[in-house]
């Protein structure tokens, strides 16, 4: 065990107590996992925690209990392995040992002659959920905040029995969803009701008296009064489901995420292999992945999302923030309507929309009401909450409705003169302290505020579409934005449950600037004569969430062309205006139809006679990104390379295995090839030198 010692491990203790349950002759053994901190620092397992659990199981069984149950501290069951200790492992043998230790300890619950229960009272992820799967029975709290096996998103596999137990419990289609599909979809979590419906839990209980009801339910099982029946797993479809899953991985990832393919192999093993052989295969896969570049990038990305995103670099003192008791939104289109719903739900304050005529205002408010109705019909919102939200969102054609607003955001047409006119009108109506926020995607916040009497209260507040899904908020400080305005913007962003990044007022800020440069290299290749399908597939080895043309269709060719024009005006040497992009934008036609390039759009293109290979397109794109990232850092657009990566992960959905982008540029040599140096030191998001 000394070889596995983790000096910085926050040990999760397994605290044992005997509980007398009515109707049982002998006490039950209740093991509570607790690392000594509140819910903001969840339970996790390192070697010390596993050893503590092992000792608790030994003591529990020695007391001859009626049953053994494992639960967690308030709000948290266990979120899995202590991944921060993985880079400290010295060699493959140590990696094998940590896998084997977890398997040995957890298997004691699976193999116990005494009934074992997991009382999943809160968040259960990774090894925490695998611990629960080893128990004979599982109760689940309806208040559990997160349930998942997210390892593949980090570059790992569920390494403590998950790939072997889950498919044999809930079937291969559902297991593939939990182990592969959900982690690769922005690390999607299961809600308690979903987990119960899949069969992960045997019973779903209310959170208020969860522990008492779990003990009563377990006693009923032990006494034979409650019989747990589970559907028989369909083994005939096993091979077909995995064949389809492999095809899907190939189409989406093109081999870019080794962990996903190893997980697929392990799911295949789970069909026929005995449990010992299956878990031994997990050990080998885990040991291989722990020393991969993809895992190091994944751990780096995880740290950005979990830590840096919660402590934005450069954010002013929160004490400077002003209260926001009413929000105004200029515009009532789709983006404005989405913002109205978000502000009302999160801030719980009145929100008023305005637009040029009553028809547009009614349409915007109607959109909000429709979304609320859908949430109620799907059981995602109770009627009381819905009634309150109905009352909070209103509309008006008169901007005088903003007179008492503390925070006004515009979501009008992306034209500097239009936005300046909006602010000039509003400044005469709102109080001098009201924050004026712009959702511009590329225009200068400084220029927008230049002619105002109080330019210091104008700030960029750039959301990403869809607003309800993407967590990034680029907060843009203009040249005269003051600290109180900025602090209020960050406070509002936190209330909206967005991850805010401070950005300098530079053309297109971070995400749009990088994506425009990226797409620009693809269209430069097309303009030169590269077939559209070749250019579109050139970036496949990165394993991005979508190909360039699908991304362009999502953003909108007209928007992309407009942003490209803004950047061309600022940096004409690096951002060209593509004639072919203009043609596509003006055509109004979809670029991709049923995952195929639209032949009608392809016929619009005018191309040269110097086509590039896919490898050349990919190299050009990576080189362009490396150059642009270095220039943005030199310009001080953000504080550090970590903020660039955080923006791409949260705002563009770039995957953890790339670490955002700078670790991948370092790994492939693009950063040194183009800029002469790495963005990050060796070992930060990669293996040590």
From TrEMBL:
Pfam families linked: 3HCDH, 3HCDH_N, ECH_1
CDD domains: crotonase-like (cd06558)
Family matches, as SUPFAM superfamilies: 6-phosphogluconate dehydrogenase C-terminal domain-like (SSF48179), ClpP/crotonase (SSF52096), NAD(P)-binding Rossmann-fold domains (SSF51735)
Pathway as given in its UniProt record: Lipid metabolism; butanoate metabolism; Lipid metabolism; fatty acid beta-oxidation
Domain 3-hydroxyacyl-CoA dehydrogenase NAD binding: 326-505
Entry keyword annotation includes Cell division: no
Superkingdom of source: Bacteria
Keyword tags: Fatty acid metabolism, Lipid degradation, Lipid metabolism, Lyase, Multifunctional enzyme, NAD, Oxidoreductase
Coiled coil region boundaries: none
Residue ranges of every copy of the 3-hydroxyacyl-CoA dehydrogenase C-terminal domain listed in the record: 509-589
An individual GO BP term: fatty acid beta-oxidation
Catalytic activity: a (3S)-3-hydroxyacyl-CoA + NAD(+) = a 3-oxoacyl-CoA + NADH + H(+)
A molecular-function term among this protein's GO annotations: long-chain (3S)-3-hydroxyacyl-CoA dehydrogenase (NAD+) activity
PANTHER family the UniProt entry points to: TRIFUNCTIONAL ENZYME SUBUNIT ALPHA, TRIFUNCTIONAL ENZYME SUBUNIT ALPHA, MITOCHONDRIAL
Family in the record: Belongs to the 3-hydroxyacyl-CoA dehydrogenase family.
The protein's name: 3-hydroxyacyl-CoA dehydrogenase
Source organism phylogeny: Bacteria, Bacillati, Actinomycetota, Actinomycetes, Micromonosporales
């Amino acid at each position: 065990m000394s070889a596995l010692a983790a000096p910085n491990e926050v040990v999760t203790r397994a605290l044992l107590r005997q509980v007398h349950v009515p109707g049982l002759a002998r006490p039950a053994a209740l093991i509570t996992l607790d690392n000594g901190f509140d819910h903001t620092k969840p339970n996790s397992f390192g070697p010390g925690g596993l050893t503590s659990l092992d000792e608790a199981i030994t003591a529990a069984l020695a007391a001859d209990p009626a049953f053994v149950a494992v639960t967690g501290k308030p709000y948290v069951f266990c979120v899995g392995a202590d991944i921060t200790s993985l880079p400290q492992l010295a060699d493959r043998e140590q990696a094998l040992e940590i896998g084997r230790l977890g398997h040995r300890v957890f298997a004691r619950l699976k193999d116990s002659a005494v009934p074992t229960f997991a009382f999943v009272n809160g968040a259960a992820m990774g090894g925490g959920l695998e611990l629960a799967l080893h128990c004979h029975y599982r109760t689940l709290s309806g208040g559990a905040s997160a349930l998942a096996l997210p390892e593949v998103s980090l570059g790992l596999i569920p390494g403590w029995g998950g790939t072997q137990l889950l498919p044999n419990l809930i079937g291969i289609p559902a297991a593939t969803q939990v182990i592969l599909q959900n982690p690769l979809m922005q690390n999607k979590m299961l809600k308690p009701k979903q987990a119960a419906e899949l069969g992960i839990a045997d019973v779903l209980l209310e959170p208020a008296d969860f522990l008492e009801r779990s003990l009563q339910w377990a006693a009923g099982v032990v006494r034979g009064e409650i019989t747990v029946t589970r559907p028989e797993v369909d083994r005939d479809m096993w091979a077909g489901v995995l064949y389809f899953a492999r095809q899907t991985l190939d189409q989406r990832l093109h081999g870019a995420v080794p962990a996903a393919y190893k997980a697929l192999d392990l799911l295949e093993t789970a069909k026929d292999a005995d449990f010992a052989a299956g878990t031994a295969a997990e050990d080998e896969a885990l040991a291989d992945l722990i020393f991969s570049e993809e895992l190091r990038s994944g751990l780096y990305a995880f740290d950005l999302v979990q830590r840096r995103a919660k402590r934005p670099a450069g954010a002013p003192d929160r004490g400077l923030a002003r209260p926001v008791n009413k929000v105004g939104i200029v515009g009532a289109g789709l983006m404005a309507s989405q913002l109205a719903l978000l502000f009302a739900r999160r801030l719980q304050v009145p929100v008023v929309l305005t637009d040029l005529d009553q028809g547009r205002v009614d349409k915007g408010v109607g959109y909000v009401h429709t979304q609320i109705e859908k949430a109620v019909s799907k059981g995602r919102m109770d009627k009381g909450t819905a009634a309150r939200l109905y009352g909070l969102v209103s509309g008006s054609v008169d901007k005088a409705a903003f007179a008492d607003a503390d925070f006004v955001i515009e979501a009008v047409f992306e034209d500097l003169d239009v936005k300046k006119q909006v602010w000039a009108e509003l400044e005469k109506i709102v109080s001098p302290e009201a924050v004026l926020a712009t959702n511009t995607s590329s225009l200068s916040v400084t220029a927008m505020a230049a002619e105002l009497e109080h330019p210091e209260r104008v700030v960029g507040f750039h959301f990403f579409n869809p607003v309800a899904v993407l967590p990034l908020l680029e907060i843009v400080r203009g040249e005269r934005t003051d600290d109180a305005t900025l602090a209020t913007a960050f406070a509002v962003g936190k209330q909206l449950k967005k991850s805010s990044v401070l950005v300098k007022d530079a053309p297109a800020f971070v995400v749009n600037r990088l994506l425009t440069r990226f797409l620009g290299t693809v269209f430069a290749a097309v303009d030169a004569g590269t077939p559209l399908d070749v250019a579109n597939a050139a970036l496949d080895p990165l394993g991005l969430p979508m190909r360039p043309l699908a991304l362009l269709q999502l953003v909108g060719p007209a928007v992309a062309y407009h942003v490209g024009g803004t950047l061309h005006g600022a940096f004409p040497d690096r951002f060209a205006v593509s004639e072919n992009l203009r043609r596509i934008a003006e055509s109004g036609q979809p670029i991709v139809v049923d995952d195929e390039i639209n032949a009608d759009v392809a016929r619009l293109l005018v191309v040269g006679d110097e086509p590039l290979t896919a490898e050349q397109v990919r190299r050009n794109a990576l080189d362009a990104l490396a150059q642009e990232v270095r220039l943005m850092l030199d310009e001080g657009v953000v504080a550090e390379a970590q903020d660039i990566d955080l923006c791409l992960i949260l705002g563009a959905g770039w995957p953890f295995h790339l670490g955002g982008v700078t670790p991948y540029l370092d790994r492939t040599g693009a950063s040194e090839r183009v800029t002469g140096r790495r963005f990050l030191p060796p070992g930060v998001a990669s293996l040590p030198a």
